[in-house]
């Protein structure tokens, strides 16, 4: 079992990493270094993060990475142009997670940081179609909830409504 992690959702993601990826594969994790990429690295995986560049404008540079796997953990919803980015990813494997669109919650945006906005709130079928159109064949899907332990209508809905969606795919 893993050490205590800062976010409940990390446990599900780490289990998927163990299930589908191998420590001897080179991994490109989209986004800057973060607690989750560090946990994966601590488990012995060879992880390189992108450097914080605007991938919407510079997705062509992704082809310069020599990797077998790309991970995109809760970053796709931040892209204005996720199709071009996903279509131009290197490697033959992709493990992606997104927060699901919730009918009872508005899309997230941090008014202090425009980089921390969700431009896309995905349903499962929307992410599936995006990946398939971009040349990926979906091999596995998983959803999970994210209960908060708080009292109220929204916390109750979060207890029973899937909040996160993960997909493992391989290049067609």
Automatic annotation (TrEMBL):
It comes from the Bacteria. InterPro entries: SAM-dependent_MTases_sf. This is Methyltransferase domain-containing protein. The lineage of its organism: Bacteria, Pseudomonadati, Bacteroidota, Flavobacteriia, Flavobacteriales.
